[in-house]
Specification:
The protein is of the alpha+beta class and 203 residues long. Helices cover 15% and strands 34% of the residues. Strands 1, 2, 3, 5, 6, 8, 9 and 12 form an 8-stranded mixed β-sheet that branches. A 4-stranded antiparallel β-sheet has the order 11-10-14-15, with no helix packed on it. The protein has a 3-stranded antiparallel β-sheet with strand order 7-4-13. A hairpin with a 2-residue loop joins strand 14 and strand 15. Bound molecules: magnesium ion. Magnesium ion (MG) binds next to strand 1.
């Protein structure tokens, strides 16, 4: 499986990191070893002093496909969850300054936390979903999928032009504003429509 991530998909978040709004989705990937399974802790990596959370809606691909048209994209994902795109912000800034790739800042072991998956049914409209992240019980991020610059279906069309999507692949769809640092001892909890989906302890 592969983990595909979209960067800068919410205008407010692009602004908070002083990035321009993208005209096409910004794509990067994380390897399989980045996956942090539900309720597993993340161990604060030794190579950063600025580990940050980015809470994102995650969709799971349930059908193989390439060159998937937006109007058929819904047939290719049946489950959604919340994830944390953990980012070593200090390394990311250094890499960006030098015009170098982001992998060491974003694709390290355990950098893709994921929660439990909900099956998408008629009662879930993926384009009209609210989610939130609490850090030590304090609300730090609120997101709404209607604020995405690129919709999930368009992301699937765009990504699948370059990369075949396979069953089990995960797509992290970008973070809303409110990203920030974590420290050992912190607890992150993610909710979709009031239901707790994600729980990650920082050790
Ligand atoms: Mg992100």
């Amino acid at each position: 499986m592969k983990i595909i991530c979209i960067g800068r998909n919410y205008a407010e978040h692009a602004k908070e990191l002083k990035n321009d709004l993208p005209t096409v989705p910004v794509i990067f990937m994380k390897p399989k070893n980045a996956l942090l399974l539900p309720d597993k802790p993340i161990y604060y990596p030794e190579f950063t002093t600025d580990l940050q959370y980015e809470c994102e809606l995650v969709v799971k691909i349930t059908k193989n496909g390439k060159y998937i048209k937006k109007k058929f994209a819904k047939k290719y994902y049946d489950y959604l969850s919340l994830g944390i795109d953990f980012t070593a912000r200090d390394l990311q800034r250094e890499q960006q300054k030098k015009g170098l790739p982001w992998e060491i800042a974003k694709a390290f072991d355990g950098s893709a936390a994921v929660g439990t998956f909900l099956q998408i049914n008629e009662s879930i409209d993926v384009n009209n979903l609210a989610f939130e992240l609490k850090l030590n019980d304090k609300l730090v991020q609120t997101g709404h999928t209607k604020d995405m610059i690129f919709s999930i279906d368009y992301i699937i069309e765009y990504v699948s032009m370059f990369f075949t999507l396979n069953i089990g692949d995960l797509i992290y769809t970008g973070t809303p504003s409110g990203v920030g640092p974590v420290n050992p001892g912190d607890l992150l909890e993610g909710y979709i429509a009031g239901e707790k989906i994600l729980c990650v302890e920082v050790k």
